[in-house]
Each structure stands twice: as C-alpha cells, then as structure tokens.
Amino acid sequence: MSDGLFAIIIIAILIVGAIATRRCTEFLLLGSVLGCVYLYHGQALSEWCSLITQVVADNAWLWLVCGLFGSLIALLQASKGTFGFSNIISKVCSTDRRTLFTSFLLGILLFVDDYLNVLTIGVCMKGIYDKRKLPRESLAFILNSTGAPVCVLLPISTWAIFFASLFYEEEVISSRFPSAMDAYLHAIPFCFYPVIALIIVALFTLGVMPKLGAMKRAYQRVEETGRVYSDASKKYNHEEYMDTDTEGNVWNFLVPMLGLVIIGVTTLNILLAIVVALIVCLVMYVPGKRMDMEEFFNLTVSGFADMMSIFFMLVAAFTLKEVCDLLHLTQFLVAVAQPVLSPHLFPAVSFLLLGVLAFVTGSNWGMSAVVAPILLPMCGALGANPVLTMAAIVSGGTFGSHACFYTDATVLSANSAGISNMEHALSQLPYTMIAAILSLIGYLIAGYVM
Q1: Inter-residue contact 119 to 412 (CB < 8 Å)
Q2: What are the pLDDT digits (tens) for 183-192?
Q3: Between the CA of residue 161 and those of 112, 188, 408, what are the distances in Å?
Q4: DSSP code, position 319
Q5: Phi, psi values for residue 362, rounded to 5°
Q6: I need a surface site. Which of 19, 248, 270, 414 has the fewest CB within 10 A?
Q7: Which pLDDT value is given to residue 3?
Q8: What is the H or E stretch that residue 338 is in?
Q9: pLDDT of res. 164
Q10: H or E segment to which residue 388 belongs
C-alpha cells in the first residue's frame, strides 16, 4: 500500500469517527498515532512525541494568541464592561434580522486578520444573541464566514500579504506582473468561493437564505426549549460569568477593545495587540476598583486555561497534518489528479485539490505553501490561465479551512460563540457546500472562457 493511500484511509477513519461520535480531538490523535505506527513501527511512540514537541514549538505564537485572548475575555466579562456594551448595541439590534446583519457588518469592518475578526466579534455579540434568543450556531456561522472570506478579498489583510508573497515566488507569476500585490489584485475578482460565501451569509442574515440542516434544527431547539446552545456546548459557557446584574460601564469594554483593534490594524501584530489590551485592562480595572490585583491575575490565568481545549485540539490537528506530509498525501493527490489535467480544467482541478487538502489536514496556509510551488509551474507548462489558478488556490484553501471541523478557523469561531466545533461545522456545512459547488461551476466555465 502506498503512503498516500494510507493517509487517505486515516483521514476517512477520522472523518467518520468524529462525525459519528461528535468527538474530534480523540480521532485526530488516533490518526496521527496510526500514521506514526505505519511510518516508524517500533519507534512510533517516540517519533510521535517528537512531532508533538515540534508542533508546539513551531506554533508558540498561536498558543499565546489563543490563551491571552481567553484571559482578555475573562477580564472583560468580570469587569461587566460587556454588559454595558450589550445594553447599548441592543438598541440597534432590536430585531433578529438587525442582530444578524450587525454581526455581518462588524465582520466586514474587522478585515485585517481572521483571528482578530472572529474572537473580537464573538465577545461583542454573544450576549446580544442570547438576549434575542438566537442560536449560537448562527453567530458561529457568521463569524467563520466573515473571517477568512473577507481577509482574502482585501489586499491589506494578513491573508493577502501571505498569498501575494507565495505566488510571486513562481516565475509564471513574477514574469507577468510588476509586483506581488499587483498579481494578487488581478486574482481577487476570480476568488469565487469567498465571494459566494459572503453573499450566502449576507442573504442568511437578511432572512433570504433559508435555514438548512443542523442550522434549522438549532432554530427549532430555541423555539421549543429557549436554549441558545445545546447540552453538548454547556462546558463552553461558564456560569460564574452569568451575573444577574447586567449594569456595566461600557468604557470598561470599549477602551480595551479599541486598543486591541487599533494596535492590530496598525501593526498587523495580533499578539502585541492583545498584550496592549491586557495592559489597558490592568490600568483601568485595578485603580478603578473593578477588581484587586490578585483577582486580575487569577482571572488572567483562569481565562488562559479556558482556552486549553482549543490548544489540545489544534495540537492534535497540526500533528496529523505533519504526519500526512510525511506520508506524502499532497503528492499522492496531485498524481491522482494529473491524468485529468488540461488547460481548461486546470483551475477547477486546482480548486478541488486545495479544498480537499485543506479540509483533510485542517491547514489552509500550510497546504497552499506546499501545493502552490507544484501547481503554478504546472499551470505554466500546460498553458492554463495563471490568474484563474491563483484565485482557485486561494478559493480552494478558503473552502477547506471554512468547512473542516478541526481547522483553527472553525475551532476559534465555535469557541468564540460558545459552542462545540462539531455543532458549528455541521450547522454551516450545507452553506459551505453550496458555495463550493457554485465556485467549482464558476471555475469550469471560466477555464473555457478565459
């Protein structure tokens, strides 16, 4: 059996097991262990531990961002600043439709980074959704759909900078365009998936797009029971923060959050922005007697600890991605796709390939970085359209990241909304599949027309 085929078997076991049991982390770990047993036999356990150690070291920035954002959320809630913000914005969100559409607009405005987008808006809107008796699944769907899809369509985001730099390394692109960003700007109009995903979520917030599948069941649950999240998501919602006193000073929320957004936008350094927001909280809350120093640091630690479930899941996902790389999953799928490659079909095949790889590995940027240096030279050799191919790579990666139930985007969106990642992934799956099918049709048509 080839290494790539074994990787496919591992991914199939993972997907079936996780969906059947609604337990994701365990199957991610199982998949990485099976891959190491196949690769290293008697040395499997030691090699698996080495992989985990390397993953933790390579992603220290992400762990700090997630953990410290958990600290910030705990402090904002304890200061009751979130109550003050909710009381004000609730006047705008006077109907369900206005509440959903406000979330969508905030997602468009915070375009600089998908982590900043997802985590910030979740904090802002979660309490308002609960007051309006809107299912948390709808909030998670809007957060995820206005995260990466917005970032890839605007040239001053972290995503645009990454993809522009990646593509311009290839001669087929650098020989045709004067700069990396110029090349990316030409590709943006043909990034069909993020455009269609944004249209779908906008229609959803306006009540035009119907509730489908698990999303429809979530709305039925709220109507029948009044519960905005299911029993499976209780562990993501801590009762110690559910204070009956809803009076709060909005400045205790707005000033730290404005500091977070301003530093994040101006420096593109999300970790720095969170640290600055925490310092602002310290300066405001302790002298202002919202809490003493001991309580401040206890909340900082407990908030960081609340994000450990995300930490473990992402470690498991990234370890599986490393195992799939060692099993040459990418090269296997490229070889399978190669017989059907033609100049006209190449953009559609590129979209499918990136979508599958990003979905099964939970890695958009990682898979794009691996596959782009393979696909773009093939694009030049076949005479396919390089602009369409760039856009297809971006769209495919965005789709895989959006739809995968253990990617960082899905996990963070779900956690920010206070639900499990499996409930979020399944409730948004019909919408991601509609966008993916329409995008594939778009690349098939464009491949023959352009």
Answers
A1: yes
A2: 888 999 999 9
A3: 10, 13, 19
A4: H
A5: 70, 25
A6: 19
A7: 82
A8: none
A9: 82
A10: helix 386-403
**For tokens 């005479």, what's the residue?**
383
What's the pLDDT tens digit per position in 146-173?
877 887 887 766 677 678 877 887 888 8
Question: What is each CA distance from 140 to 63, 122, 287, 345, 428, in whole angstroms?
Answer: 21, 8, 35, 34, 9
Residue 276 in tokens: 């600055």
Which DSSP helix (H) or strand (E) runs through 257? Answer: helix 251-267
**Amino acid residing at 18:** A
Token pair 């990642």 is found at 421
Token pair, residue 236, equals 């993501």
What gap in Å lies between CA 34 and CA 324, rounded to an integer?
11
| Residue burial 280-292, b: 16+ Cβ < 10 Å; e: rest | bbbebbeeeebbe
Please report the pLDDT score of residue 241 as a whole number: 43
Region at 213 (left for phi over 0; alpha for psi -120 to 50; beta for the rest): left
The H or E element containing residue 327 is none
| CA angle, 17 then 20 then 24, to 5° | 55
Q: What is the pLDDT of residue 439?
A: 96
Given a cut of 70, the residues of the chain with pLDDT beneath it are: 1, 19, 22, 24, 81-87, 110-117, 119, 156-158, 161, 238-248, 265, 268, 310, 337-338, 340, 363, 366, 370
pLDDT at residue number 245: 45
Best CA proximity match to 182, nearest among 160, 200, 204, 201: 160
- Angle among Cα 276, 277, 278 to the nearest 5 degrees reads 90
